[in-house]
Amino acid sequence: MSSANKMVSIITPVYNGEKYIGRTIQSVVNQTYSDWELIIIDDCSTDATSKLVHEASEADRRIKLIKLKVNQGAAAARNAGIKASGGRFIAFLDGDDVWLPGKLETQLDFMLTNEVSFTYSAYYAVKDEIKILRKAPLKITYSATLLNPRIGCLTVIYDTAVLGKVYMPNIRKRQDWATWLSILKAIKETKGITFPLAEYTVRDNSLSSNKFKLIKYNWEVLRLHKPNILPALLYFSCFLVLNTYKAVRERQKFYSLKRKSERLEKY
């Protein structure tokens, strides 16, 4: 891959996303940086997702549709998009999330200026029009990310001219965290942008019970990086305490802000 190539390949997996995919596409079209391709991988949707994406691709040739023949999950869908990509930079944006207009321009300038091959940013978590900032540290290391996966997939960009094409492990959940760990293990640490550049759509089940369903996947990822059982158990215990606390605090914030908003609407 030539380092002169500055095109961004945006990888967007989607499944039954007709409700959100239009605004996701529009947030890419609205970017102030125009050298991109948007690769949308439809993971066997049964709704009008493919039709909407096809119409968008007819209007803008930078938008491309890949239709999987069998539902395989986000990891396989993203990997199909990465394989088909032609850009130097790989970025991720799921089919129900959005970018702020200056996202690509700001982040690419940051990467090139600071000579970093893997970056992320802060972002907003959004539910019922209520936004909560999910902060991002200025610097992050492999060890810190083992305990606290603070990198939002929708904010990540990596440089294939330095790292090559990095594919995600084929697990149903947490494959993005596993990927960031693999990259950080190789490069040791990296820098990110501390202000928000994207908005993540929070679904109802992601605030509570779904966190517990992820436990086995969290353990699976940690075991990949900590093959000895005792260190893995130690990291896993710390991980559970820290991330359960974070999930509860965020849920409380959402419900508190929602109640305030409802009270204001009454007046």
From TrEMBL:
Gene3D superfamilies on file: Spore Coat Polysaccharide Biosynthesis Protein SpsA, Chain A
InterPro entries documented for this protein: Glyco_trans_2-like, Nucleotide-diphossugar_trans
UniProt keywords, alphabetically: Transferase
Superkingdom field: Bacteria
Pfam families linked: Glycos_transf_2
Domain Glycosyltransferase 2-like residue range list: 9-142
GO molecular function: hexosyltransferase activity
Name under which the protein is recorded: Glycosyltransferase involved in cell wall biosynthesis
Native organism: Chitinophaga japonensis (Flexibacter japonensis)
